[in-house]
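Sharing a chain and its predicted structure for anyone who wants a worked example. Both blocks are below, sequence first, C-alpha coordinates second.
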Amino acid sequence: MKPCSYCGESRKLTREHIFADYLARAFPDHGTYVDNARRIATRSPAIVRDVCRCCNGGTLSALDSYGSELTSRYFSKDVALPVRVTFQADFHRLLRLLLKVSFNDARTRKQGAVFQQFVPYILGKATQPPIATHLFFGIVASIPTAPAERAAGMAAILHPHVHRIGELKVDLPHDLKNSLVLARLVSFHAFLFGVFAWSRLTSLPTRRKAMEKVATVNGLTELSCDALARGIKITSACADARTFLWAGMPPGGWPAKYV
Protein backbone atom coordinates (compact mmCIF):
# COMPACT_ATOMS: atom_id res chain seq x y z
CA MET A 1 0.00 0.00 0.00
CA LYS A 2 1.28 3.41 -0.99
CA PRO A 3 -0.30 6.83 -0.41
CA CYS A 4 -2.67 8.11 -3.08
CA SER A 5 -1.31 11.20 -4.84
CA TYR A 6 -4.65 12.97 -4.29
CA CYS A 7 -6.10 12.04 -0.91
CA GLY A 8 -2.85 10.85 0.70
CA GLU A 9 -4.48 7.71 2.12
CA SER A 10 -2.55 4.44 1.92
CA ARG A 11 -4.77 2.30 -0.26
CA LYS A 12 -4.61 -0.02 -3.23
CA LEU A 13 -3.64 2.14 -6.18
CA THR A 14 -5.20 2.12 -9.64
CA ARG A 15 -4.30 3.43 -13.08
CA GLU A 16 -5.06 7.02 -14.02
CA HIS A 17 -4.70 8.24 -17.61
CA ILE A 18 -2.90 11.55 -18.13
CA PHE A 19 -5.25 12.24 -21.03
CA ALA A 20 -8.48 10.39 -20.25
CA ASP A 21 -9.30 7.51 -22.59
CA TYR A 22 -12.46 9.23 -23.86
CA LEU A 23 -10.10 11.28 -26.03
CA ALA A 24 -8.67 8.14 -27.60
CA ARG A 25 -12.21 7.00 -28.42
CA ALA A 26 -13.21 10.40 -29.82
CA PHE A 27 -10.02 10.73 -31.90
CA PRO A 28 -8.96 7.24 -33.06
CA ASP A 29 -6.57 8.73 -35.63
CA HIS A 30 -4.77 10.96 -33.09
CA GLY A 31 -1.67 10.41 -31.07
CA THR A 32 -1.14 12.13 -27.75
CA TYR A 33 1.64 14.68 -27.74
CA VAL A 34 2.73 14.31 -24.17
CA ASP A 35 5.18 17.09 -23.39
CA ASN A 36 7.61 19.45 -25.07
CA ALA A 37 10.43 18.21 -22.85
CA ARG A 38 9.97 14.55 -23.79
CA ARG A 39 8.95 15.16 -27.42
CA ILE A 40 7.04 11.90 -27.60
CA ALA A 41 3.99 11.23 -29.75
CA THR A 42 2.14 8.11 -28.60
CA ARG A 43 -0.98 6.39 -29.86
CA SER A 44 -2.26 5.62 -26.34
CA PRO A 45 -2.57 8.08 -23.45
CA ALA A 46 0.18 7.73 -20.86
CA ILE A 47 -0.74 6.26 -17.46
CA VAL A 48 0.23 6.87 -13.85
CA ARG A 49 -0.40 4.25 -11.16
CA ASP A 50 -0.62 6.27 -7.97
CA VAL A 51 -4.32 7.08 -7.49
CA CYS A 52 -6.63 5.17 -5.16
CA ARG A 53 -9.90 3.70 -6.41
CA CYS A 54 -11.93 6.09 -4.25
CA CYS A 55 -10.44 9.22 -5.88
CA ASN A 56 -10.18 7.68 -9.33
CA GLY A 57 -13.79 6.50 -9.36
CA GLY A 58 -15.17 9.54 -7.56
CA THR A 59 -14.22 13.17 -8.11
CA LEU A 60 -11.63 12.49 -10.81
CA SER A 61 -14.10 10.33 -12.73
CA ALA A 62 -16.65 13.15 -12.54
CA LEU A 63 -14.09 15.55 -14.01
CA ASP A 64 -13.40 13.08 -16.82
CA SER A 65 -17.13 12.86 -17.47
CA TYR A 66 -17.24 16.63 -17.81
CA GLY A 67 -14.26 16.49 -20.15
CA SER A 68 -16.06 13.87 -22.23
CA GLU A 69 -19.09 16.17 -22.41
CA LEU A 70 -16.93 19.09 -23.58
CA THR A 71 -15.28 16.80 -26.12
CA SER A 72 -18.63 15.85 -27.62
CA ARG A 73 -19.82 19.46 -27.72
CA TYR A 74 -16.61 21.22 -28.73
CA PHE A 75 -13.22 19.49 -28.76
CA SER A 76 -14.18 16.91 -31.39
CA LYS A 77 -14.95 19.65 -33.92
CA ASP A 78 -12.53 20.93 -36.53
CA VAL A 79 -12.26 24.71 -36.70
CA ALA A 80 -11.40 26.22 -40.08
CA LEU A 81 -10.77 29.81 -41.10
CA PRO A 82 -12.56 32.16 -40.69
CA VAL A 83 -12.94 31.24 -37.02
CA ARG A 84 -16.44 31.45 -35.58
CA VAL A 85 -16.55 29.68 -32.21
CA THR A 86 -18.74 30.20 -29.17
CA PHE A 87 -17.43 28.27 -26.17
CA GLN A 88 -19.54 27.83 -23.02
CA ALA A 89 -18.44 25.91 -19.93
CA ASP A 90 -18.35 25.82 -16.15
CA PHE A 91 -15.21 27.75 -15.21
CA HIS A 92 -14.27 25.78 -12.11
CA ARG A 93 -14.96 22.32 -13.53
CA LEU A 94 -12.90 23.20 -16.61
CA LEU A 95 -10.03 24.59 -14.54
CA ARG A 96 -10.08 21.56 -12.24
CA LEU A 97 -9.94 19.28 -15.28
CA LEU A 98 -6.95 21.13 -16.75
CA LEU A 99 -5.13 21.12 -13.40
CA LYS A 100 -5.80 17.38 -13.01
CA VAL A 101 -4.33 16.64 -16.45
CA SER A 102 -1.30 18.82 -15.70
CA PHE A 103 -0.77 17.27 -12.26
CA ASN A 104 -0.99 13.76 -13.68
CA ASP A 105 1.60 14.61 -16.32
CA ALA A 106 3.93 16.35 -13.85
CA ARG A 107 4.02 13.28 -11.60
CA THR A 108 5.37 11.13 -14.43
CA ARG A 109 8.45 13.36 -14.35
CA LYS A 110 8.61 13.74 -10.55
CA GLN A 111 7.56 17.40 -10.80
CA GLY A 112 4.20 17.13 -9.07
CA ALA A 113 5.14 19.01 -5.88
CA VAL A 114 4.06 22.40 -7.24
CA PHE A 115 0.54 21.01 -7.80
CA GLN A 116 0.05 19.65 -4.27
CA GLN A 117 -1.44 22.94 -3.07
CA PHE A 118 -4.12 22.61 -5.80
CA VAL A 119 -5.25 19.10 -4.79
CA PRO A 120 -8.10 20.21 -2.46
CA TYR A 121 -9.39 22.43 -5.27
CA ILE A 122 -9.07 19.68 -7.90
CA LEU A 123 -11.03 17.34 -5.62
CA GLY A 124 -13.74 19.96 -5.07
CA LYS A 125 -12.95 20.34 -1.36
CA ALA A 126 -12.04 24.01 -1.91
CA THR A 127 -14.23 26.37 -3.92
CA GLN A 128 -11.31 28.49 -5.22
CA PRO A 129 -7.69 27.81 -6.23
CA PRO A 130 -5.25 28.39 -3.35
CA ILE A 131 -3.40 31.17 -5.22
CA ALA A 132 -4.33 33.66 -7.95
CA THR A 133 -4.95 31.59 -11.09
CA HIS A 134 -5.83 32.78 -14.59
CA LEU A 135 -7.35 30.70 -17.38
CA PHE A 136 -6.88 31.50 -21.08
CA PHE A 137 -8.38 30.06 -24.25
CA GLY A 138 -7.48 30.03 -27.94
CA ILE A 139 -8.27 28.21 -31.17
CA VAL A 140 -5.82 26.37 -33.44
CA ALA A 141 -7.32 26.55 -36.92
CA SER A 142 -7.18 23.91 -39.64
CA ILE A 143 -5.71 25.24 -42.90
CA PRO A 144 -5.32 24.10 -46.52
CA THR A 145 -2.00 22.51 -47.37
CA ALA A 146 0.30 24.01 -50.00
CA PRO A 147 0.63 22.41 -53.47
CA ALA A 148 4.11 21.11 -52.60
CA GLU A 149 2.76 19.51 -49.44
CA ARG A 150 -0.07 17.82 -51.32
CA ALA A 151 2.42 16.62 -53.95
CA ALA A 152 4.39 15.04 -51.08
CA GLY A 153 1.30 13.06 -50.03
CA MET A 154 -0.28 15.30 -47.42
CA ALA A 155 -4.06 15.69 -47.23
CA ALA A 156 -5.79 18.77 -48.60
CA ILE A 157 -6.48 20.10 -45.10
CA LEU A 158 -4.00 20.16 -42.22
CA HIS A 159 -5.65 19.66 -38.83
CA PRO A 160 -4.09 20.01 -35.35
CA HIS A 161 -4.18 16.23 -34.91
CA VAL A 162 -2.62 16.05 -31.45
CA HIS A 163 -3.50 16.62 -27.82
CA ARG A 164 -0.66 18.54 -26.25
CA ILE A 165 0.50 19.22 -22.72
CA GLY A 166 3.52 21.10 -21.44
CA GLU A 167 4.96 24.37 -20.26
CA LEU A 168 3.52 27.48 -21.89
CA LYS A 169 6.35 29.74 -23.00
CA VAL A 170 5.73 33.38 -22.11
CA ASP A 171 7.74 36.51 -22.87
CA LEU A 172 7.87 38.24 -19.50
CA PRO A 173 10.62 40.04 -17.57
CA HIS A 174 12.78 37.77 -15.44
CA ASP A 175 11.33 38.97 -12.12
CA LEU A 176 7.77 38.29 -13.30
CA LYS A 177 8.67 34.83 -14.58
CA ASN A 178 10.01 34.05 -11.12
CA SER A 179 6.61 35.03 -9.69
CA LEU A 180 4.81 32.50 -11.90
CA VAL A 181 4.10 29.29 -10.02
CA LEU A 182 2.50 27.64 -13.07
CA ALA A 183 2.41 28.38 -16.79
CA ARG A 184 0.81 25.32 -18.40
CA LEU A 185 -0.54 24.56 -21.83
CA VAL A 186 -3.18 21.87 -22.39
CA SER A 187 -4.79 21.43 -25.80
CA PHE A 188 -7.50 19.13 -27.10
CA HIS A 189 -7.40 19.10 -30.91
CA ALA A 190 -8.24 22.70 -31.94
CA PHE A 191 -9.00 23.97 -28.41
CA LEU A 192 -6.01 25.34 -26.52
CA PHE A 193 -5.96 26.39 -22.87
CA GLY A 194 -3.37 28.18 -20.77
CA VAL A 195 -3.27 28.07 -16.96
CA PHE A 196 -1.22 30.65 -15.07
CA ALA A 197 -0.86 30.75 -11.28
CA TRP A 198 1.02 33.41 -9.35
CA SER A 199 2.81 33.54 -6.02
CA ARG A 200 0.91 35.17 -3.19
CA LEU A 201 3.33 38.12 -3.14
CA THR A 202 2.44 39.19 -6.70
CA SER A 203 0.18 42.26 -6.69
CA LEU A 204 -3.04 42.42 -8.69
CA PRO A 205 -1.84 45.32 -10.93
CA THR A 206 1.34 43.38 -11.71
CA ARG A 207 -0.61 40.25 -12.59
CA ARG A 208 -3.10 42.15 -14.71
CA LYS A 209 -0.37 43.87 -16.72
CA ALA A 210 1.44 40.58 -17.29
CA MET A 211 -1.72 38.72 -18.29
CA GLU A 212 -2.70 41.45 -20.73
CA LYS A 213 0.68 40.99 -22.41
CA VAL A 214 0.25 37.21 -22.52
CA ALA A 215 -3.16 37.63 -24.14
CA THR A 216 -1.87 40.09 -26.73
CA VAL A 217 1.35 38.28 -27.65
CA ASN A 218 -0.17 34.78 -27.74
CA GLY A 219 -3.55 35.67 -29.21
CA LEU A 220 -5.39 34.18 -26.24
CA THR A 221 -8.60 35.25 -24.48
CA GLU A 222 -8.79 35.27 -20.69
CA LEU A 223 -11.81 33.42 -19.32
CA SER A 224 -13.93 34.45 -16.35
CA CYS A 225 -16.73 32.61 -14.56
CA ASP A 226 -19.52 34.86 -15.78
CA ALA A 227 -18.31 35.31 -19.36
CA LEU A 228 -17.65 31.58 -19.78
CA ALA A 229 -21.12 30.77 -18.44
CA ARG A 230 -22.67 33.12 -21.01
CA GLY A 231 -20.42 31.88 -23.82
CA ILE A 232 -17.11 33.23 -25.14
CA LYS A 233 -17.10 34.21 -28.82
CA ILE A 234 -13.79 33.71 -30.62
CA THR A 235 -13.35 35.16 -34.12
CA SER A 236 -9.61 34.68 -34.68
CA ALA A 237 -7.12 31.84 -34.24
CA CYS A 238 -4.18 31.98 -31.83
CA ALA A 239 -2.26 29.71 -34.26
CA ASP A 240 -2.79 27.69 -37.41
CA ALA A 241 -2.32 23.92 -37.49
CA ARG A 242 1.01 24.10 -39.32
CA THR A 243 2.58 26.48 -36.80
CA PHE A 244 1.16 24.54 -33.88
CA LEU A 245 2.30 21.12 -35.10
CA TRP A 246 5.73 22.23 -36.24
CA ALA A 247 6.48 24.00 -32.97
CA GLY A 248 7.98 21.32 -30.76
CA MET A 249 8.08 18.68 -33.48
CA PRO A 250 9.60 15.37 -32.29
CA PRO A 251 13.13 14.55 -33.51
CA GLY A 252 12.92 13.14 -37.02
CA GLY A 253 9.58 14.82 -37.70
CA TRP A 254 5.99 13.78 -37.12
CA PRO A 255 4.85 10.27 -38.04
CA ALA A 256 3.08 10.20 -41.41
CA LYS A 257 -0.37 9.83 -39.86
CA TYR A 258 -0.09 13.32 -38.32
CA VAL A 259 0.47 15.07 -41.61
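Comments welcome. The mean pLDDT is 87.
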